[in-house]
Amino acid sequence: MANRRITRPPGPEPHFLIGNFPLGRPDPLAVFTGWAREFGDIFYYRAGWIHVYFLNSPELIESVLVTNQQNFRKDRVIQNSRWFLGQGLLTSEGGEWLRQRRLSQPAFHRERLALYARIINACAEEMLDSWKDGENRDVHQEMMQLTLRVVAKVLFSVDVKNESKEVAAALNLLMKHSSGARMLLPPWVRYLPLPFLIRVRRAVRQLDEVVYRIIRERRESESDKGDLLSMLMSARDEDGSRMTDRQLRDEVMTFLLAGHETTALSLSWAWYLLSENPEAENKLHHELARVLDGKNPSFEDLPRLCYTEAVVKESMRLYPPAWSLARTAARDFEVGGYLVPAGANVVMSQWIMHRDPRFFPSPEQFDPGRWFEEPTQRLPRFAYFPFGGGPRYCVGASFAMMEATLLLAAIAQRFRLRMVPGHNVVPVPSITLRPKYGIKMSLHQIRV
Ligand code: HEM
């Protein structure tokens, strides 16, 4: 570190006492984007007592997520979320994380994905049968309930149809609690007897009830269903002990939440973008007619649903469900020629990188066709990273891509979705990138 610079990277002018609180501003995404364009590959700001180093180049991001990942642990937002996620795969660290990762990975092997495709189709069909021509629905809520049912069925072999509305509402509250500057509040704040926090704690209890029911019913049935829950239940520690109910609860909760919210968002944003871009929507319908010819999409059709998959990728470029990743430096660290002290936060944002004109020509334009063209096919690794990277890469990424592609195909084959006039679509950077007022659309059945 002989030539390390002890000066801080450039950054916005701070308030002398509180620094900068971009997450408390009316449009944090615009603030971050403005700073990235003004200050370049790395900028610095202080939010109260938290030092933030924001990285805006693929090489710097790779150096944190891959090359030097051992210098970092998950940031305080993820650490704070332990109070409702517990110590599952998303929040754990070190040896405990590695053990959990090895245990759950087989649930996403290719041969299991082929089985999941049939379940995905059945859930889509059931939802579509309840949709009526001409009615209005909040498509974000519909996608949340659908993907929740899918993930509960494929990983835990349970049907949560009756609870899916309740779970979606509980999750809405949790996400509201995790948005804006609230994300950085210390954990004890949640015990304050404020009406909003009382509702949030009730939401966690509701989620717990669903999760403990799933575990209890499986224990009672004593059957090995070959799913993730059975894999977790039969795993033994080095001393021969099995997972406790609390450990199982944390893992099930993590997979239920991480495994449906993000996929639902990728689809919700795709419906919004398709409705605003009729040319892309027509190309999608052409591909579906050519490849499927009216039959339900299957696992075997996936290699030929290239444009459908490109719609999913392009939607996640413009509206990445995980809009940023953050790490806390465990030790002093050098990045981009600057010293990041131990305890500082490093942030890397998909929202910023995916809209960077150095990598994506006409970045604001929704153009799924770009994924078949030269510049996009030769992207540096971390110019596009909707699923993160390095060892903490999303364990459900292949499953999520398959699920989103199949659901998009199944739904677009039967309905065109149009924005309800006057409805305002506003992305909010909570832990995930959510539409503040939902996505209200009218449903138009396609007659064949
Ligand atoms: C479009 C859908 C999805 C997106 C955009 C997404 C995004 C991500 C990202 C960015 C990470 C890395 C977080 C970090 O490094 O801090 C991650 C991790 C994770 N994701 Fe996903 N995800 C999606 C779907 C899924 C699904 C379907 C599942 C499970 C069924 C899942 C389960 C997880 C888990 C358990 C982790 C933690 C992995 C680890 O730390 O080893 N995700 N996801």
Brief summary of the model shown:
The chain has 448 residues and is an alpha+beta fold.
What is this structure's SSE topology?
Layout: H1 28-39, E1 42-47, E2 50-55, H2 58-67, E3 72-74, H3 76-80, H4 82-85, H5 94-104, H6 110-130, E4 136-138, H7 139-156, H8 164-177, H9 195-221, H10 228-234, H11 245-258, H12 261-276, H13 278-292, H14 306-318, E5 325-329, E6 333-335, E7 338-340, E8 345-348, H15 350-353, H16 374-377, H17 397-414, E9 415-419, E10 427-429, E11 433-435, E12 440-445
Parallel strand pairs: 2-8
Antiparallel strand pairs: 1-2, 3-5, 4-12, 5-8, 6-7, 9-12, 10-11
Helix pairs in contact: 6-7, 6-17, 7-8, 7-11, 7-12, 8-9, 9-11, 12-14, 12-17, 13-14, 14-17
The protein binds protoporphyrin IX containing FE.
